[in-house]
């Protein structure tokens, strides 16, 4: 009888010990659960930030590629890089108006006489006229006629007329203003401005 009581006591103690161990494990699981949740939340935030940064980098790369492509397209139309507009207050020398360059980038001066010198592209069907007739009209008054898509170019600027049927560039010279023309179906305003920039640089606008 005494042995039985001792045995029961031993079993009771063992049961209590096991219960205590089990309770500790549950408490440990409960205590680590919030930490696991926080870690997962931080990881999600980091992934979202990384994705956002990647999208920004991708957009910037696409924008840079598009800009380079546009510049390459413009350069290709004239056969050279863009020197940019001439310095402020620069004018085209009078001699250059009377005797324009034989070549400007991919353009060559066509044979023929007359006030309008014609330049032809070496590969594409593009014609640009440089009218040597010097206008005495005020430059600002003339530019008001080409306000559409107007951009600085050479010693003046380029733009389209109100009807959009012609691209015109007015350039300041020593004696007044000269006119360069092209048609929008053959060339863009930006490409025309590039040609004019090269023209002004080549003739020594200063």
Q: What descriptive keywords fit this protein?
A:
Protein Transport Mog1p, Chain A, 206 residues, 8-stranded antiparallel β-sheet, alpha+beta, 8 strands, 21% strand
Description:
The protein has 206 residues and is an alpha+beta fold. It folds into two domains: 1-78; 94-202, Protein Transport Mog1p, Chain A, CATH 3.40.1000. The chain contains four helices and eight strands. An eight-stranded antiparallel sheet has the order 1-2-3-4-8-7-6-5. α1 packs across α4. The relative contact order is 0.13.
Number of strands: 8
Report the mean per-residue pLDDT as an integer.
Answer: 80
- What structural class is derived from the secondary structure elements? alpha+beta
Shape-level CATH architecture of the largest domain: 3-Layer(aba) Sandwich
Secondary-structure element pattern, one letter each: HHEEEEHEEEEH
Note the total helix count. Answer: 4
Sheet with most strands: strand arrangement: 1-2-3-4-8-7-6-5
Distance between the termini: 124 Å
Using only C-alpha atoms, the radius of gyration works out to 39 Å
Shape call: elongated
Question: What fraction of residues sit in β-strands?
Answer: 15-25%
Return the domain count.
2
Under CATH at level 1, the class of the largest domain stands as Alpha Beta
In the CATH scheme, what's the topology name of the largest domain? Protein Transport Mog1p, Chain A
Give the uncertain stretches in residue-range form. Answer: 1-21, 71-76
User: Biggest sheet: strands, sense, closure?
Assistant: 8 strands, antiparallel
What is the helical fraction, as a range of percent?
A: 40-55%
């Amino acid at each position: 009888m005494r042995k039985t009581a001792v045995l029961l006591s031993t079993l009771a103690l063992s049961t209590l010990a096991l219960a205590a161990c089990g309770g500790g494990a549950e408490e440990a699981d409960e205590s680590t659960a919030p930490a696991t949740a926080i870690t997962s939340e931080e990881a999600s935030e980091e992934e979202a930030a990384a994705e956002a940064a990647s999208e920004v980098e991708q957009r910037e790369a696409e924008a840079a590629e598009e800009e380079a492509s546009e510049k390459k397209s413009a350069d290709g139309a004239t056969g050279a890089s863009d020197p940019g507009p001439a310095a402020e207050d620069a004018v085209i020398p009078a001699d250059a108006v009377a005797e324009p360059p034989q070549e400007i980038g991919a353009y060559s001066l066509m044979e023929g006489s007359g006030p309008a010198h014609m330049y032809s592209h070496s590969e594409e069907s593009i014609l640009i006229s440089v009218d040597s007739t010097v206008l005495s009209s005020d430059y600002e008054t003339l530019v008001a006629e080409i306000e559409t898509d107007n951009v600085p170019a050479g010693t003046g600027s380029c733009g389209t007329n109100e009807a959009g049927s012609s691209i015109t560039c007015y350039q300041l010279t020593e004696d007044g203003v000269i006119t360069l023309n092209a048609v929008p179906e053959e060339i863009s305003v930006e490409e025309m401005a590039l040609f004019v920039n090269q023209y002004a640089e080549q003739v020594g606008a200063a």
